[in-house]
Amino acid sequence: MQQTVSIMGVPFSKLNLQQTIKKLTVQLDKQEGKLFQLITANPEIVMVAKQDELLRTIISQSGMITADGIGIVLAAKWQGEPLEERVTGFDIFTGLLKAGNEKGYSIFLLGADEETSRKASEVIAEQYPGVRVVGRQNGFFGKEEEAGVVASIGAAKPDILVVAMGAPYSEKWIYKYKKDLKAKVAFGIGGSLDVLAGKVKRAPVAWQKLNLEWLYRLLSQPSRLRRQLVLPRFALKILFGGGKSK
C-alpha cells in the first residue's frame, strides 16, 4: 500500500498520530544513524514550496512529512486518498515527551523567547521527569552566535531536537546544520513551546474536533490573518489546478 499522498508534489505520510510516534521511536531507539528530519506541513508550507527551491529540496530529503492542517486533510480527501487525521507538530511533540518519559529520551529546546524557553523546560521537568532536557537556547541569537549554538547542540547529542523559530526557517536551519547537530530526530514545532509554557492557549478540544483550530488561533491572534489568506489560494489550486501535480 502506498504510504504517502502527494499534495502539489509534497508527499504526506498516511500514518496516523499513534503510528507516527511509533515510527519516530524506532528512529530514536537506534544506537546511531543519520539525523531524521521530520516536517509538519500545512497549506502555507505547500504553497511556499512551489516557489522555494531550497524548501523543495529539504522536503524531498526529509524522513517524513505530516499533515499539520485541516486543509491538507481536505485536499487528500478531494483527491480520493483520504488521511485518517491531522498529525500536528504539537501532538507529535507531546507524544514524544510521553514516550520519552518512559524510555529516558533526551531533548534540546531551540527557539522562542528566553522566558518561554525556560518555562517550557520547567514544565517538561515537572510533567515528564523521565525526559532529560540536555540543553536549551532561545531563538534570539545573531549570525555570529550561530556556530556556538550548533556546537552546543552537537556536544549535547540530544535524541530529539525541537526548533521553534517559525516555518520554513526552522526546517531550513535544521537542514543546513544536520550533519553537525548530532541529534537522532529533529523537527520544527512552530509555537508549541508557547503552548507548553502556558503563554498561548491551544484551542479547546471541541474546536479541535470540529477542525476549527485555525479559526480559534486567528480569533486569538488577529495578526495571523495575512498568513491565513493563503488558504483560499491553496483551495483553488487543489480544486482547479490539479493537487497531485507539482
UniProtKB/TrEMBL annotation:
InterPro entries: TagA_TarA (IPR034714), WecG_TagA_CpsF (IPR004629)
Enzymatic reactions: UDP-N-acetyl-alpha-D-mannosamine + N-acetyl-alpha-D-glucosaminyl-di-trans,octa-cis-undecaprenyl diphosphate = N-acetyl-beta-D-mannosaminyl-(1->4)-N-acetyl-alpha-D-glucosaminyl di-trans,octa-cis-undecaprenyl diphosphate + UDP + H(+)
Record carries keyword Glycoprotein: no
Signal peptide per UniProt: none
E.C. designation(s): 2.4.1.187
Keywords: Cell wall biogenesis/degradation, Glycosyltransferase, Teichoic acid biosynthesis, Transferase
Pfam (any one): Glyco_tran_WecG
Family: Belongs to the glycosyltransferase 26 family. TagA/TarA subfamily.
Role description: Catalyzes the conversion of GlcNAc-PP-undecaprenol into ManNAc-GlcNAc-PP-undecaprenol, the first committed lipid intermediate in the de novo synthesis of teichoic acid.
Name the UniProt record assigns to this protein: N-acetylglucosaminyldiphosphoundecaprenol N-acetyl-beta-D-mannosaminyltransferase
Species of origin: Paenibacillus radicis
